[in-house]
Design a protein that fits this description.
Elements: E1 6-12, E2 18-19, E3 35-41, H1 42-45, H2 77-83, E4 92-97, H3 103-116, E5 121-125, H4 130-140, E6 147-151, H5 155-165, E7 169-173, H6 190-207, E8 210-216, H7 228-232, E9 235-240, E10 247-255, E11 263-269, E12 272-275, H8 279-284, E13 294-301, E14 304-316, E15 324-327, H9 331-345, E16 352-358, H10 370-382, E17 390-392, E18 395-396, E19 402-403, H11 408-417, E20 422-426, H12 427-433, E21 440-444, H13 447-455
Parallel strand pairs: 4-8, 4-9, 5-6, 5-7, 7-8, 13-17, 15-16, 17-20, 20-21
Antiparallel strand pairs: 1-2, 1-3, 9-10, 10-11, 11-12, 13-14, 14-16, 18-19
Helix pairs in contact: 5-6, 9-10, 10-13, 11-12
Bound molecules: thymidine-5'-diphosphate and magnesium ion.
Amino acid sequence: MAVKKVKSVFFCSECGNESPKWMGQCPACHAWNTMVEQEVTASEKRSKPRGASERSVPVALSEISLGEEDRVRTGIGELDRVLGGGVVPGSMILVGGDPGIGKSTLLLQACRELSSRGQKVLYISGEESLKQIRMRAERLGTFPGELKLFCETDLNVIGEILKQEKPDIAVIDSIQTMYNEEVSGTPGSVSQVRESTAVLLQLSKSLSISVFIVGHVTKEGTVAGPRILEHMVDTVLYFEGDRHASYRILRGVKNRFGSTNEIGVFEMREDGLAEVANPSEYLLAGSPKGASGTVTACSIEGTRPILLEIQALVCQTSFGIPRRQSSGADLNRINLLMAVLEKRLGLHLGQCDAYVNIAGGMRVVEPAVDLAIAMAIAGSFLNLPVEEGLLAFGEVGLSGEVRGVSLPEQRVAEAAKLGYKVCVLPRVCAERAGRVKGIRLIAVDSVRDAIALIKK
Ligand code: TYD
Ligand code: MG
């Protein structure tokens, strides 16, 4: 019989990188002082690749069904959208997010819908007692289907129960509380989280159970310690939003069965999470009328156009070095746009503080919001509001030119739907969008043309 050798390795608590010796800086993620020592038994390190069950037989591409019918709809439209149409049987889904953002609430609601559609659902909690879950369920309303709850943190027991119950869907809340006797380390440590996920992955594939895993996120924005979790699972969803505001955004970061960067928008209410079918309307609610430095932009999130309100505040700096701050938009992009405005239009922004905010706590990286940001900054600097009912989109280049962006037709259609009257857009996009009822299109070639519209 092989004797289990105990040896220790070092894991980076940020990214899960493994190293045989301690280092001050992790060579993978370059974080300092994050290597932690962990004892590893020899057998555990040799674990064979898991999860290759029935998928390991070669199949002709044409014989594969399109799979729409294979998916199980959760009944929560926004969640289904992010998942790419529903839950794929036997898949593993990681739901990450800050503590208290609403992960347990979302999954309990999903379980309610799934169980009422005849799915066998098992909700395993290592964080709350049965009573606490019951209390949450009370707030959420009635549970018509049969939903089974189980409070446990020992993975061996969970494994037995899963084999015995054979549910269609299982929820593990949260992976940081799970623990595996055979592995050293406390629950939540890198090796525990990694091994627990591997065990669950094997169970999920062999028993064809779809597993939702809840993972808490650290301050740095990664699922606590082990980013490796992201590589092991099929789908990674992040639940984010301002804890002080009531809306929540569910974002797909990785999806083996659908497109990523889809978002789902929810509102946290007294009785749980409600879907927000029209996020643009929601994000634009309460926008000021006739204020300078406010311009609406249109960004494509996944497949959906979403209207956002860009706000800028530009004022003379009272200290030597101007302050630039952004929430929701990329700060480098803002610095670049300010440099373009200064150089190409002669706006003296060099001695100005600038604050840019995307209302509603949305984060946007798409360059299509450039034009609106530039117009908001210039508008605030000149202290002139834009025309009422105006929306702008387009990418701004370093020469001050306005470049085309994808899907102009959809953006214009969304703007028209929400009652916008004027749309400022790149010339190529205007040509593609053609004529749209109820909205006037103003094609621009450069930022100068767009800013001229403010001065009128
Ligand atoms: P929870 O799902 O426990 O968060 P997580 O599992 O991500 O840690 O969400 C808890 C928060 O949601 C808590 O601050 C209370 C709030 N909440 C509501 O506002 N309405 C509700 O109906 C429920 C169940 C929770
Ligand atoms: Mg929770």
